[in-house]
Amino acid sequence: MPLPIAVPAVLAQVAALPSAWRFLLPGAVLLLAAILALLLMERHLRSRRGGGRDPGPQPGDDHLKLALWGSGEELWDYDLDQRRLQRIRTSEGPQQDAEPTLLTRVGPVPAIHPVDLPAVIKRLRSHLEGESPFFLSEHRMDLLDNGVWIWVRVRGRVAERDTEGRPVRISGIARDITASRNAEDERRIAGEVLHSMNEAVAVLDWDYRFISVNPAFTRITGYLESEVMGQSARTLDSDRHDDVYYAQLDTTLLRDGHWQGDTWRTRKDGEDILCHLQINLVRDHDGDRHLYVMVLSDITEQNRAEQELRYLANYDTLTSLPNRSLLSERLSRAVVRARRESGRVAVLFVDLDRFKDVNDSLGHSMGDRVLRAAAARVLQAVGPQHTVARLSGDEFTVVLEDIGSAEEAERVAQGIIDAFAVPLSFGDRHELVISPSIGISLYPEHAEVPSELLKHADTAMYQAKAVGRRAYALYSAAMDEQTRRRATLAGALRKALDRNELSLVYQPRYSLLSECITGVEALLRWNSDEFGSVPPAEFIPLAEESGMIQEIGEWVLRGACRTLRDWQKAGYDHLSMSVNLSAMQLLRGDLHGLLVRTLTETEVDPRKLELELTESVVMANPEQNADTLRRCRELGVTLAIDDFGTGYSSLAYLKRLPITALKIDREFIGDLTHDADDEAITSIIITMGHALGLKVVAEGVESPAQLQFLREHGCDEIQGHLVAPALEPGVCLRFLAAPVSFAA
Questions:
Q1: Is the pLDDT confidence value at 7 over 50?
Q2: Are 29 and 71 in contact, with CB atoms under 8 Å apart?
Q3: Residues with Cβ within 8 Å of residue 742, at least 6 apart in sequence
Q4: Do 124 and 230 share a domain, yes or no?
Q5: pLDDT tens digits along 500-549
Q6: What is the pLDDT of residues 13-55, one digit of tens each?
């Protein structure tokens, strides 16, 4: 059945009542409701006695009118039999002091919001069935039938029953609570937001004492709400700020009504945290000062992260030296100052010699330790007044300001070299000797732009390496010609294969056991139409840098195997062929597949093919290389370590590799009969090789005395000019047919 619900209008005059009256309203409403219900019942009875007509407002209704006007309530009366709702409220005149009048509206019950309707029915039924003494409800209604829902608070009770005790009439009061309901929702939402905020929020009174705090306040400061209530906010002040700082903060807050900034606060546990603090002064409607609202954000970690980012943007994390970005900034400033003061600036480009061998053989961890130690050596040699930066890898740059001459820059460079004369020590009796090569460029003699100074110093550094490393070189314009030659050579090398400019020569290898030539080593040569004969030491690095070594290496392997096939057909079945491999062929190419294809194509016995690799190549990636070499060894191919003793190999890894031979580097053989150290090293390598079951070959043998020493110490084979130089294929074939003529 329809629900007997009425909704009152809110009187604007209520808001204007004195504050003392407002506190009396809730209690007065209940008394007013009872009075109004009696008046309404009396009038209803008069209406029934008068034949059911509503006589409308009577002169005695002044009390009712004043009560409704003063309370802002609306009376409602619902006839359950006739299903008629009567609503009585007051209306205001056009002027504020106009006398209110009573308005009565009779009709059906306005629509109740579908969501609220089930609860309203339940509450009404509970009252009508006597389960509750009153009908109380807060719900939404469309009072004006215009689709606008407003919230009402309704209170009523059964006012009349029939002779059987069945309710026939219910009456009560109602009020529009939309504004208060919205305000309550806003307060609830604000409370939830405040409760879930990550920022600490505190309300302070005029004396900066805590009134309330949110949960984030406890999480950030460590103080419970009960611990700070009534306490001064100065509890959080940090000793990092003095009294002047806090006085200025107070002055700004009082003048502007707000203050914000980054400030240090102290937690309960005594830890200082960096916070972003916002304080706003909240005034009452008269403009008087009242409360402070403080919002606190812990930005300690954020600040630390920003500092780390700034550090990473300007410093090398491994050595803590300035990086390329900061170097560029400092060099630019140095050049500007030198230009203004007519001074000089020197740029030193420092590169560690053979550092790649250290990294590849001893591992990146040891390489990092070497770089840190090297950075310390350079800093110590240069002094704190100059900039030392790490660009990348093993490259360091030094900026010298206010130098008087090129000789002064050279003295600093020599000082850096001398600083590396003492081995780098890493404890556990582990020492490592490493040397730098240094290039020098000067402002304004060589360039006036920082980028050009760096480029010229880099060019000079390569010149220092070219003259034998462990040296420095001062830039000159002639060095650019060498750089251009390298670039031109690299371009010509790309066309060398197509132009048939590459060729192979072969150097015989002599067995001290069988006293005959047992094999040859294939060596690459480049006779350029443009540059003439280019030394391998010049074009092989270019091939590796450009990536052409893959294609050239495959060409060398096929050519050497074809030559070996032809010689075997000529009756030299006992000969073996040695071919050198580069790191790129081993690491990036399909070496196993290349060997299978080449051996199948040339029909060469795999046991007659030997692959030579340097220590640095093998140790560049020991685990991966070991797997690759094992697969090659399974084909029957033999493997030799070339230039043994000059790298930084790990014997533990060499033991696990499928190596069949060691080749002693010519550096030890050259002074074999004049240097006791070389003799000791050579004899140790021979003994160690034999202990590991390896064949030992000595390279660079040029004198009978060297031959005699090697024979006495049990070396297996020799190779060098004493036997024969590298020969063209036809010349080498004729050499094989003749007896060996050197004296034993």
A1: no
A2: yes
A3: 704, 707, 722, 723
A4: no
A5: 999 999 999 999 999 999 999 999 999 998 889 999 888 887 887 777 88
A6: 333 333 333 333 343 343 444 444 444 444 544 444 444 444 4
Q: CB under 8 Å to 79, separation ≥6 — which residues? A: 85, 86, 168, 169
Buried b (16+ CB within 10 A) or exposed e, 681-715: bbbebbeebeeeebbbbbbbbebeebbebbeebeb
Q: Residue 81 has what pLDDT?
A: 85
3-state secondary structure of 156: strand
- What share of the chain has pLDDT > 70, as a percent? 86
**Is the same domain home to 463 and 523?**
no
CATH number at residue 46: 3.30.450.20
Q: Is the pLDDT assigned to residue 743 strictly greater than 80?
A: no
Q: Which two structure tokens, joined as six digits, stand for 583?
A: 């790191």
pLDDT tens, position by position, 544-596: 777 788 899 999 999 999 999 999 999 998 999 999 988 778 877 688 999 99
H/E stretch holding 431 reads strand 431-432
- The Cα 417–Cα 437 span in angstroms is 8
Partnered with residue 87 across adjacent β-strands are 76, 105
Residue 103 pLDDT > 50: yes
What pLDDT score does 185 carry? 77
Sequence-distant (6+) residues with CB within 8 A of 20 are none
Token pair of 392 as six digits: 């990348």
Are 598 and 730 in a shared domain?
yes
What's the rounded Cα separation, in Å, for the pair 159 and 167? 8
Q: Which residues of 295-320 are buried (b: 16+ CB within 10 A; e: fewer)?
A: bbbbbeeeeeeeeeeeeeebbbeebe
pLDDT of residue 287 exceeding 70, the answer is no
Residue 32 pLDDT: 44
CA 116 vs. chain centroid, Å, equals 53
Residue 444: cis peptide before it, omega within 30 degrees of 0: yes
Rounded CA-CA distance 739/731 in Å is: 14
In this structure, is residue 480 part of a structural domain?
no
Q: What is the pLDDT of residue 502?
A: 94
pLDDT value for 621: 63
Neighbour-count burial of 473, counting CB atoms closer than 10 A to its CB (0-12 exposed, 13-18 middle, 19+ buried): buried
Evaluate whether 162 touches 149 at the Cβ level (below 8 Å): no
**Number of separate domains in the chain:** 4
Answer whether 558's CB lies under 8 Å from 601's CB. yes
Residue 389 tokens, joined: 């930066």
Residues 341 and 430 in one domain: yes
Residues listed for the chain: 744
Edge-first strand order for the sheet with 387-392 is 387-392, 395-401, 345-352, 436-443, 472-474
C-alpha 664/C-alpha 696 separation (Å) is: 7
Query: What domain range is 114 assigned to?
Result: 12-177
Question: In this model, does residue 615 exceed pLDDT 90?
Answer: no
The residue with tokens 């004899």 is 683
Query: SS3 for 433?
Result: coil
Which tokens is 629 given? Answer: 């070499």
